[in-house]
Amino acid sequence: MFIAPILSGAGMRIKVLEAAACGIPLLHSPLANLGVNFDEKEASICHNAKEFINAIEAKIGKTENELMTETKQARLRIEHNFSNVSFLENAGALLTSL
Fold first, then answer.
1. Contact 12, 34 (CB under 8 A)
2. Which candidate among 57, 61, 72, 93 keeps its CA 20 to 30 Å from the CA of 42?
3. Could you tell me the sign of the dihedral formed by the alpha carbons of 55, 3, 61, 74, in that order?
4. Which residue has the higher pLDDT, 91 or 38?
5. Are 28 and 6 in contact (CB under 8 A)?
């Protein structure tokens, strides 16, 4: 389980991307979700300590299959938006538009 209760700072949270790419269940604050934009099917987005506690308990109560489905969705988002292939496609589109 990857827990990122980030409350301040700027920029994309590379550790969140790395955890998702490794298939680790995610629990993080809205700030940690900026730039990645996971939805509730992919990660638990917690706004306060009570929500983090509830999310941890919920993850503990899930079956391995349920966790695998959730982490797979997060990993697919990472692959789709942040892979080398995605980068090259976006860079190519940007250069073509210039």
1. yes
2. 93
3. positive
4. 38
5. yes
Query: For residue 61, what is the enclosing H or E element?
Result: helix 49-61
Q: Which is it for the CA torsion 59, 66, 29, 76, positive or negative?
A: positive
What is the distance in angstroms between the CA of the first residue and the CA of the last residue of the chain? Answer: 43
Output b/e per residue, 4-43; b: 16+ Cβ within 10 A. Answer: beeeeeeeebeebbebbeeeebbbbbeebbeebebeeebb
Architecture of domain 2-97: 3-Layer(aba) Sandwich (3.40)
HSE toward the beta carbon, residue 66, CA cutoff 13 A: 7
Whole-model pTM: value is: 0.75
* φ and ψ of 82, to 5 deg: -130, 10
- What Rg, from alpha-carbon coordinates, does the chain have? 15
pLDDT of residue 46: 96
